[in-house]
Structures are given as C-alpha cells and as structure tokens.
Amino acid sequence: MHRHLRSVVALVACAGAVAAQQVPEILYYKLNDGGGTLALNEASPGAGFTQAVVNGAFTFGPGQLGGGLVGTGQTGANAYVDTGYTLNLQGTSWTLEFWYTPTSYPSLQYLMGVPVGGSFRVYGAAQGGSITLTGSGLGTVSATGAMPPIGTWVHIAYVFDATTTPPRVTPYVNGAPLAPVNQTGTLTLNTGAFRLGSQI
Fold first, then answer.
1. For the chain, what percent of residues have pLDDT higher than 90?
2. Which terminus of the chain has fewer Cβ atoms in its 10 Å neighbourhood, N or C?
3. Can you give the chain as a three-state secondary structure string?
C-alpha cells in the first residue's frame, strides 16, 4: 500500500563504479534547481533524462548538502520525480545513496522505486524503524534503526557487490556499515523508469 511521502530528498546517486570517479555515473541529483519542474542529473556520463521531471506537489527547499525536495503529502501516483532511467543493474556492482529527513510519520513512506509492480523500492515508516531496500530477486536489506527523528538528516547507502560469491548488499547508515545480506536470487527489474518520492 502506498502512503504519502512527506520528506526531503537531498541526494540520490546510483553508480556502477563510484570508487573509480568522484561523480556518480548513472544518476546524481544535487537538487539545487531552486524551483520549477525539472531537476538536473549531474552524473557523468549520466542515464535517463538530462533533467528529471518533477510531477505533482513537490517544492525545492534546503537539503543537507545544498538543495532538496519537499513532499506535500500527495500520493506517489500524482507526486514523483521521473528520472527517465530504466534500471539496468544486472551483473554489475552498484551503489544507491541519498540524504533524507522526514517531516511526519505516515504508516509507510516510499522514498524511491520503479512504478511497474514496485519490484525495486526503498521505504521507511515510524521513527527508529528501518529504511528498507527490496525488489524482485533481491533479498530484503534493512538499514536497521535508520528512520530518523523529524528534522534530523540521515545518510543511507546500499552497496551491491557483484564480485563476491554469493553477491551481497551492505547497508550503511551515516557511513557506518551494517551486516551484509547475501543475495542468492537473480535481480529482476521492471521496465518502468526509476522514480524519486514514489514507487507506483
């Protein structure tokens, strides 16, 4: 069930080789656009739209490292950021990271994902709860206790290591690693474009 996203997202990076370069290579939103309905993708070389399309009632506001996006409580069917990038992460190592702070605690907040069946998504709920990554063929990975108090920023990262046997995902909360989760399935991704602020 989708609930309202009432949060500020300051940074999303999704990259196959972060260590090899300082700028993420797929998606990188600083969210310093200041207004309007477009958010520049500053990844190099980048994928999806050069400028993501901001749909519905999001406003640009302050973030942890510059700008951010503030949700106003609309459902994800109407309010989301369309990156234009169809996830293509099979067989490679990747990192997904972002800054986040809640403005309230609805029963469930989808922070990002794909709209077709929601097979790849990140979500959280009550204060002190986990922020969780899951998907079809992807074992559930929880950043335990990562859901911060209202107005407090948290940095979340999920690092998928395809070089280990089996592959594994390690969650990080404010730079501290948590227990890695072995991945024994085959990651299956949908054809829908990756969205911020929604997974439907």
1. 30
2. N
3. CCCCCCEEEEEEEEECCHHHCCCCCCEEECCCCCCCCEEECCCCCCCCCCEEEEECCEEEEEECCEEEEEECCCCCCCCEEEEEEECCCCCCCEEEEEEEEECCCCCCEEEEECCCCCCEEEEECCCCCCEEEEECCEEEEEECCCCCCCCCCEEEEEEEECCCCCCEEEEEECCEECCCEECCCCCCCCCCEEEECCCC
